[in-house]
Amino acid sequence: MRISSCMHNTRPEGELLPQEAAAFDALEHLGISYDRVSSDPADNMEKCAAVSAVLGVPICKNLFLCNRQKTQFYLLAMGPDKPFHTKDLSRQIGSARLSFAPEEALFELLHCTPGSATVLGLMNDTAHQVRFLIDREIYEAPYISCHPCICTSSLKLKTSDILHIFLPYTGHEVTVADLPTEAG
Predict the structure, then answer these.
(1) Is the pTM of this model over 0.90?
(2) What is the CATH number of the domain that holds 173?
(3) Residue 145 near residue 60, CB atoms below 8 Å
(4) Helical spans, DSSP H, in the chain
């Protein structure tokens, strides 16, 4: 897999997709610093592991979920090696029958494609239809790593900047979830 060296506060060269450019514009507008790595598409956790090694922080596993009726949507940020079991999360957020949301909803609400779901996509959810959930381990970590709405770049950001600058900018609140390391 081709991976660039880590660059500080530098956009990728060339023309960017609109959602990618918007993510970098938002970070610059908000004064949020980041380290960036470009790579071949890192659209699954195995590919993200190589990118994580360059960034020095694990890339979050971001799951885009919905209820059975597809009327409530959730973006869950969790550690890359932690297993996901719907029952563990369902109890905590009061939503039964969680499943993966349709790809169309992911693009419509967050302007992301499969493999590139990210907290940065919440800037596109201006109607606040997506509830942001974060596992406590990620919430308490000093850094968070994610894609800028496209999986050919990965960013390392201060978690405090996401929680205290970016989320207030988007108007989204965070719900901290306690996900077990093993099925519970």
Answers:
(1) yes
(2) 3.90.960.10
(3) yes
(4) 18-30, 45-55, 86-93, 103-110, 136-140, 159-161, 167-170
What is the number of domains present in the chain?
A: 1
Residue pair 131/175 in contact (Cβ under 8 Å)? The answer is: yes
What is the extent of the structural domain holding 117? 17-177
- Using a pLDDT cut of 70, give the percent of the chain over it: 98
CA distances for 121 relative to 22, 38, 46, 68, 184, angstroms: 9, 18, 22, 22, 30
Distance CA(183)–CA(164), nearest Å, equals 31
Angle at 47 between CA 44 and CA 49, to 5 degrees: 110
Residue type, 142: P
Q: What is the pLDDT of residues 135-144, one digit of tens each?
A: 999 999 999 9
